[in-house]
Design goal:
69% helix, single chain, mainly alpha
Amino acid sequence: MWNAFILLFMESTIEIMISAYLNIIYSGVFTTKSDYFSKILSYCFIAVETVVLPLAFVYMLSKPISYLKMEHVTNKIGVMYEGLNSVSKTSMAYNFLHMLRRLIFFCIFMSPFGEMPVSF
């Protein structure tokens, strides 16, 4: 059920964060309702990428391995550990660490301390 959404947000972390950040920072005057909707949607995507998805990974890693191997759990959140060695928790945390690495890269890349002047 949630596999498609989880996979979408896991695979496109950098793209979603950069586009949401640029939409928030460089949005001009709000003239239409779609401008407001776009900015609200950007905040929602940033919240999902920085709060919801990492908490889902922590929830997944807190469960016993025998529980994660059940069919109904695999059908819901199996994409979070699909293709990984499901014997140890450290190997199952690979996707979580990979996503955190992308988020840290985004924070460094978009840091205001090393910001270069941008002109449009």
